[in-house]
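Rather than argue in generalities, we reproduce a single protein record, letters for residues, whole numbers for local backbone shapes, just as it appears below:
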Amino acid sequence: MNPTCPTSPFDTEAPLPSALVTVRPTRLGGPAREDEEWVAEEVPVALEYNGLSQAVMLATPLDLEDFALGFSLSEGLIATPADLLDIEIQTRPNGVALQLRVTARCELLLKERRRSMAGRTGCGLCGTDNLDQVFRPPAQPVPALPVDRSQLIPVLSRAMRELAEAQPLQQRSGGIHAAAWCGPDGAVRLVREDVGRHNALDKLIGALARAGTDTAAGFAAVTSRASFEMVQKAAGAGMPMLAAVSAPTHLAIRTAQACGLTLAGFVREGRATLYS
């Protein structure tokens, strides 16, 4: 008989789920044994603007205020942090709801451009219902990179090395992406983690916006490939460069070239590939 799937793994009486949980899997390939290990939590997170459901993403239930602001900005749902008036986090039987209160102007725009974005981790365009919604040029020109090209290799190497050391969730579970804000010397200043690479970058963008950080004064480094959506989010946030540990897509390269964003891929110790 097939096991019965529970209606919901969440409990409305419980607090917000933890970012990591422990399980006891059976290890094979040798004497079978059960050892306790940490795994990443993944929950449906609904973003509701003035009572209107706008998106459902799968995310790590951590730094959700940053996620709400970063997602709202990077998806063009609000224009400035001041448009987001309040955030309330609610635990529900089927996940977590972020109740966002936005200005009347933003609510009107949301009603005119209603999008159903039922999301999966790593999915950037879920629910976009026409091609005109895909490409959003940055509101402001992308600033110049504050790093001399001759210094890029040591700067990028430092950024990725420090990013690897600043991922507590990844170090314990092995299943988490991260996005870091780095200074022009490559020093990691801020890190956000999530099971979804887009979510990690959104959380970073939100945290930078909440702190009033000058995004022209550094760059973003991510532990994933560089997709079109990642490039668009970085450029829209006013970041001069996106550095990725893995490969870019062709659309990501073309988008970076079109908006003036420096895009580095395959950033590993001592090497990197510049695509724009």
